[in-house]
Amino acid sequence: MVQPDSSSASEARALPSTALNGLRVLDLTRVRSGPTCVRQFADWGADVIKIEAPVDTAQFGGPRSGPDFQNLHRNKRSLTLDLKNKAGLAAFRKLAETADIIVENFRPGVKKRLGIDYDTLSKTNPGLIYASISGFGQDGPLADRPGFDQIAQGMGGLMSITGTPGEGPMRVGIPLADLCAGLFAAQGIMIALLERATSGKGQWIQTSLLQAQVFMLDFQAARYLMDGDIPKQAGNNHPTSIPTGVFRTSDGHMNIAVTGNNIWASFARILGRETWLTDERYATAPARSDNRDALGAEIEATLKTNTTAHWIDLFTGAGVPAGEINDIGQVFAEPQVRHLGLAQPVTSQERGETELVGQPIIMSRTPSHIATPPPLAGQHSAEILTEIGLSSDEIEEMRASGAT
Question: What are the residue numbers of the active site?
Answer without folding.
Answer: 178
